[in-house]
Structures are given as structure tokens and as C-alpha cells.
Amino acid sequence: MKKETVSKIWRAAFVIALLIVGAEGAVLRERVSFNSDWRFRKGDPPGAEGVLSYARIKEWVLATGNEFTRDPTKRRERPSGNLGEEVAYTRPDFDDRDWQPVELPHDWGIEGPFKQEYPGESGKLPWWGVGWYRKHFTVPRSSDGRRFLLEIDGAMAYALVWLNGRFVGGWPYGYASFALDLTPYIEPGRENVLAIRLDNPPESSRWYPGGGIYRNVWLVETGPVHVAHWGTYVTTPEVSPTSATVNVEVTVANASPAPAAVTIRTRIHQLGADGRPLPATVAVAQPVEISVASGANGSAVAQAKIRAPKLWSIENPNLYVAVTTVIANGRPVDEYETRFGVRTIRFDAQQGFLLNGKRVKIQGVCNHHDLGPLGTALNVRALERQLELLKEMGANAIRTSHNPPAPELLDLCDRMGFLVMDEAFDCWRRGKKENDYHLLFDDWHEKDWRAQLRRDRNHPSIILWSIGNEILEQNSPEGIQIATELVRIAHEEDPTRPVTAACNFTEAGYNGFQKIVDVFGYNYKPMEYGKFRRANPNIPLVASETASTVSSRGEYFFPVSDDKSKGFFNFQVSSYDLYAPPWATTPDTEFAAQDQYPFVAGEFVWTGFDYLGEPTPYGGDSTTMLAFTDAELRARAERELRERGKISVPSRSSYFGIIDLCGFPKDRFYLYQARWRPDLPMVHILPHWNWPERIGQNVPVHVYTSGDEVELFLNGRSLGRRKKGPGQYRLRWDDVVYEPGSLRAVAYKNGRKWAETTVRTTGPAARVSLNPDRVRIRADRKDLAFITVRITDRDGLTVPRTHNLIRFHIDGPGEIVAVANGDATSHMPFKANEMRAFNGLCLVIVRSTGRAGTIRVRAQAEGLAEAATVITATP
Ligand code: GAL
Hints:
Keywords: Glycosidase, Hydrolase. By secondary structure, this protein is mainly β.
């Protein structure tokens, strides 16, 4: 195939992601986005409901996982015949013209509507049910003899795929990435029709899982002799300042009718800022020769040495690319790029975690996969923004709770310098929900786990594999047996990284379970660290999940109580950062334990961002809520429970985030920043200072600073200078009597002035203001501008406690993809041109429509001066 024909070939493809052209101009490998021009419909065709339910057809799907089943006797053969022929939507001639046109990634639940009767635990959004996607495309006649692989990075859930009416394969776990060989079914030179059925069972998730093909889809074209899917594994067994040994294991697949004698050449480049290899070759591996039988795979290891390697680290995330060329009969037949990094990692029972030989405290957060108002539909800029905000706070690590993440998250972590705990499961054989992964565990855990390990093992950011979160078997012999198997699989697929499990049962630290993993993970057990170490002197320990402090941005309730079960009112949670459910703690409690026991490798806070679903303390079953809410609400709830058998809770998203659903920091962002960025001069005051109804009454003031001492002034009068004592992470003035005016905090470090901030009583709301995170975006239909909308007084100060309705207008080549305000109880749709401010703020997310030009956004609210902003979409 010649280069010039390429753009014609991929009529249907939107972006050419990777095009590898050999020395003679022949295209060796192409990987194109397959996200455009899909058609979508909810539900099965009439009469076919349930015909394709997993329980009935699973024998068909299991065969897809054979590549990841090590024991050949456990591999499945597909039944004969063709699955699903009788279902109209699988057929190529089915007329789908009236289906909804969609572009992937797509989350069918996020547009709502929110419904009060839907479970708050999974976001009060309609994510469940069956959905079908169809796509028409062509490949040219000249591609006869080429191989075509469909890569699906994630489809929620129970995916089944047909091409031209013939069943290709499927994959049930909604968080897994998988690939299907389309070659036997594709018809070059004619129209081809892909049909994908998803089935998302209700009661299958403890959070909002989203629904649909919510990650990227790719079409990969290669020759018959090619590097297999996820076919490289790069390790760096020896690393010193002067040299690094790089082993590149390459698996070559031979789909040709004859045996293939191939030479594998690998050269190494640095990765440039544009994501492409820099021209200079920094190392070349000795060529290796292997012979691969027809229809088989063969592997070989090529070794190279990089002199004076640039190490990957949090501060300098240097990356390399191994470019592997497969040569058969003297001609290149494939070329494959693998990004990797050179670094050493080690967990140590005494020293915690060491990166490149230096101790690094893990300052991590757990996150779910949704992107707030954008739902679960993957967007790279939205993820990048999350990581930028977390970096700003001083976080250096991410736990992909509780499932394999989008591959793009790992790419970003590699590039931005985040450590990653890559997690597989939220349950094993014993489920947490009626229809969750426990139904798949026996048949699929090996396939899912090996697939995840093979997909992810070249990412330098990954420092830990996690076999599961709060697994119910953790205190049983069965759990020890399953853990042993999962750890063994991880060591087989990747002997270079330790394996952990996030355990919430105290016993798991003593009953033998702790000895199965390489690094033991405790969730919410700061009181246990000392005892664990005495009982297990040689097992490294990480706080795999911590805090779970809850709060609503900008809400403060009085009187302020230090009792962690207080602070709840009107389905909101006070933002004094003192409140947490029974199993959880304040950030301060965890800090104190980590300081007392420095051998703990660090922590992963629950959570970095608020997420859809799990609105604890107002979620779950009604009794949980009754256990820790305010008296007034409890009385109402008890009455509802008596009269109607259930409680009407509006909450649909979490209160756990350090950052709210829009990406606006809550107060505790600054508590973490004060600890995690000790060299950044900063000081933060809470609450806001607009309390007209509390004049003469007590309003406690808390101050977070990276300094060690603060003097607080109210209207110029000193309220005293206070110093942090041992185990103290915030400074408090609990006896302040409110008067309007200004509250100024001057922070000191080692006796010298360090930082200063002032909070003022504002005037009444006077105008709207718009502040985009970036004024230039790429005109690629993907890039986003996040515009912060504020209600301000005449002087531009954000007015707290304002909830004005704001209407947005947009013109130019841009569209509003979502609006949100961070209020966990709001049922206003995310897909709209209006939103109510929540405590002074809301968010508009704008995407380019694909054309370059000027996008103008205006915001209007009744009685306030309007605002406008301009974003330029550039080619
Ligand atoms: C943990 C669990 C998380 C989340 C959290 C809320 O026990 O692992 O998934 O539910 O509690 O505090």
C-alpha cells in the first residue's frame, strides 16, 4: 500500500494516530482512530430482548480470552454456527439511518435526566441497560492480505462484536481493553458494517460506571508478519548513572501460510515533547533472529545499552521510545514503537518507597474514572486538567480505584511525573453488588488480569499492581488462595514490580494474607501501623486508602463540632474538614500517623476529585445515613421511612473529593498543599467572611499554611500568633466573634515572614465574571476550555453563598459540552446552556466544533452585569 492512498482508505477515520512508513515508502503499520460516524440506539430489537444475554452466550465470548489463558486445557473453543444471526441489529443490511449519530468516546448515561428515584449510589443517572452501536466503513481492495485488528480501550459492559453479520468476539469486563481480529470477516473494496452490543446490568456498581463505548476505539492494520498486540515488554534490569541495560522482548505473530524467518532490529530514541521520537538514536540493540511457525507467535529479547541515561522521575519524567523493526526476506514488514522510562523502584519495610534510590513519600490520591459533568467519556484534556490540579496541590501519585484505567491516563502520568498504583478489581468471588464482577470472576479473572498487565507494563509511572480493593475474602483461606494466584500471575507477566492489595480488615495484616503480597496496603488503619510493623518487620506498608473526609465546597455549619459524625445539614457537609464517616478520619489524623511511623510508604487519599455516585453520608442504604446525620434530617428521614418505606435523598455525587466535581478546590486542597509542598509559600483561611446573621456570634477560623506559625488579624486587630505544635497540621482560632470586614493571616516559617492572605466580607452580587483555563484550544473537536464562572461584587470579589441562575450563549466554532456547579444535590442537567451557581461558582466546558476561529461565550444572570470571554480555536 502506498502512502498517498492512505487518506482515501481511512475515509471513516477522523485522525491518523500513527502511520509507520518503511524506508521504501510502503506503509507497514497503521493505527487510526475509529471514533467517528457511529450510530447508536438503546435496547435490543423487538422480539430479541434477552436472546444475547451473557448467561446464554458466554461460550462464544470466552474464546476471545484464550490468548490470556495460560493453561491450554482451559482455553475454549467457539461453538459452531454464527451467534446472533437472528438479531436484526447484527445484520449488515439492517437500515440504521434513523439511529442517533454519535462520536466516541460516548457515555449514554451522562445526559440524564437525573431522577430522584434512581439510586444515588450510582449517580441518579440512567447508565444501565442494553445499547447498540453500528458503524459503516470501507477498506480498499488493495488491502487484501493485510491484517485488521479492532482495539477497544473500554466498553461498559459485556461487549459483543459483529462484522458484516458475523460474530467476531466479545469482552464482558467494562474496564478492560481488548482487541479483536477482524481479518477473517473484513471485505476489502466494499462497505463493511460493525455492530457492537453492550449490556450494562443494573446493581453492578458502587459508583457511577457510565454506559457505552466510553473510551477510544482504534483500527490497526499490519502485514501478516507483525509485532503482536501488546507485543513488546521493555525492562531495564541494570541502571546506573553511566549506563542502563534495556531489554526489549518482542513477540512476533506470523499469520502468513509459511514459516517466517525474521530479524528484529530495535533502536532507542528519546521521546520529544511532541510525543514523537527525537531524530538522534541513543542506542541500538544487537539484531536478533527468530523463526516463527505459520499461525504462531515467537518471542525474542533484544538488548541495548543507553549511556548516561536520563532517568524518569517525578520532577523530570524523561521518556524513551524503542523503535522495533521486523525484517523478513530482507525487507521491513513491520515497525512498532514502545514508550518506556528508565528508573529503579523499590519498596522497603523500613524506608518506604525509593525511586532511583531516593526515598519518596507517596502523596497520592484515589480517583474513579468519571470526569464529573463529562461523565465517563474519555477526554484527554479533562484528565490532564485533573492531573494539573493535583500537581498544583503537591500530589505525586494516583491510584486507579478500583479498576484498570484508560491507557491515556497512564500516558499522562508517564509524561507528567505521577506514580501509579494500577488496580484490577473491586471484588473477587464474593460480590459487593448483586451483578458486579463476582459473576465473572471465575471465568475471567486470569484473562482480565493478564490483559491489564500486558497492556500496562511498559509505563514507568506504574510502581505497584493492586489485585483488589477491600476484597471480602481477605480474611479467609479462600482469599489467601486467590491472592496467591493473582500475585503469581502478576509476577509471571511482570517480575519487575511489586504487588499489593488494599485491605480494610485489620486481620488481613496478621492472618497470613499480608505475606502473600509484596507490599501490604491498609485502608483507613492509621492506628494499626505500629502494631503491623512489630508483627511484620519485613513487609513494606503503604496506606492504600486514607481519610475519606467529606465536605461540600463553600458550606459551613455552626456550631462547629470536632465530633467527626457531626457537620451534616440539608444534604450538605460542613467544609471545616473535620467530618468523616465511621470508618474514616480527617486528613490530620492520617498525617500524624504517617509522621509517627515514617516507614509507611505514603498514602492514597480518598479521593482527589468528587465523583458521580456514592454520596456518603447521604447515600447507600438508609440506615447508614441515619447513623450520622443531623437531628433535624434524621427526624425527617425516620418519618419518611415510617410512612413510605424509604428516604428521599437528592444527593447524586460524592462529598469525598479534595476537589469538587467541577475541579474547584475545596478548603482541604490547601491542607494537603501545605503538607505536600512545604517549599511553596502559602496560607489559606476558612471560612468565608459573609455572615451577616452571625454578627456578635462565634465563627471559628482555621488556617492552613506551609509555614509553621500564623498571626491572624480581624479588621486589623491581632487575634494572636499561633505556632503548630507536634502533630498539628492546622492552626485554629475557635473563639473568634464575627464582625464583617477583613480577616488577614500572616504566616511565618522559622521566624521569617512566609506568606499572607486576606478574606473579606464582600458587597452584594453585582456581576458575573468568566475565566477560562486556556484562551487557545486546538480546533480538533476534542480539546476543551474550562471556564470558571463567578458571581462577584462590584470590586470583583467572589460572593460566597450566591446561587444565581446563569444563562450561557456561545457563537463561533465552539459548543458547550457541559455545565456544572459542584453541588452534590443538584439535579440540573449537565448538558444545558444554563446552571445555577453553587456558593458563588459554576463551570462551563467548551469544545471546538473542528473549525479554527474565535469562540465567544457570554454569561447572563438576572440583575447582574453580564460577562463575555473569547477563546481562539487554532488548527
Ligand atoms: C472505601 C472503599 C471506596 C469507597 C470509600 C468511601 O472503603 O474502598 O471504594 O467506598 O470507602 O469512604
